[in-house]
Amino acid sequence: MIREDYILRLVRKYAQMVARIVGQNHAREYRNALQTIDQASMQLLSLNIGSVIRLSPGQLLAILLDGHDPAECRARCTLLVTLLQQAGIAHAAENRPAESRVAYLQALHILLEVLPRRDGVVLPEFAPAIEDLVSVAREKGLPAETQTALMLYYEQTGQYARAEDCLYAMLEDEPENPGIVDMGIELYERLQQQDDAVLSAGNLPRDEVNDGLIEMRKFKRRP
After folding, report:
1. Residue 176: enclosing H or E segment and its boundaries?
2. Is 170 within 8 Å of 147 (Cβ atoms)?
3. In terms of Cα–Cα distance, which of 72, 165, 166, 56 is closest to 114?
4. Three-state SS for 34?
5. Does an H or E element contain 129, and which?
6. Whole-angstrom Cα distance, residue 6 to residue 29?
7. How many angstroms separate the CA atoms of 54 and 52, rounded?
8. pLDDT one-digit tens code per residue, 71-82
9. How far apart are CA 50 and CA 87, in angstroms?
């Protein structure tokens, strides 16, 4: 109970930080927003947001997760995701598209790591929705590693048609990449193990799964 109270207080503290930043962005006070984001990032990681953007998602997660229990890690990660999202908004408004793109991609990668799959855990209200990040990040172009993480997330959450969309987006970008074809074969083989009702709920009925696997195997056999 004491630990739960601590997490609730932590989430409320983070929510207040986020509310201030969101308010500054809404008021078009973008430089002030970025300063507040830097302050919050320093409190969270002892790094300003520029340094955070330059780290790999793996490095960031290692810092965020070190020495904290799962509930606190989830709160810390979702705060950072929100800071990165708001930094992306501010950078875009300040005509810094490269910084905005990296911030959004970083946020998306971390959120994909900490989002609950089927465990019923609810993220804090201040956390951005996955589709909000995806829609903006896609406009800026998703690299293969992001598409892969997104595909696996959609598969794990039963959104099979969306997982397939990610697969074909990667194939469109890199049609000669055999690793993507192998990934597609593995995806469809896993989906074949699902019940018909589960596949239909994921908007990818069995006949489409079977057709997709046939198509991937054709890709595989191409010289």
Report:
1. none
2. yes
3. 72
4. helix
5. none
6. 32
7. 5
8. 788 888 889 999
9. 9
Residues for the chain: how many in total?
Answer: 223
Burial track 179-216 (b if 16+ CB lie within 10 A, e otherwise): ebbebbbebbeebeebeeeebeebebbeebbeebbebb
Opening angle at CA 25, ends 24 and 30, nearest 5: 90
Half-sphere exposure of 213 (CA within 13 A, CB side): 14
- Say if residues 173 and 144 touch (Cβ distance below 8 Å): yes
Q: At what angle do helices 70-93 and 130-140 cross, to 10 degrees?
A: 40
Run of H or E residues at 189: helix 178-192
pLDDT in tens, 7-21: 678 778 888 989 999
> In this structure, what token pair is assigned to residue 216?
């991937």
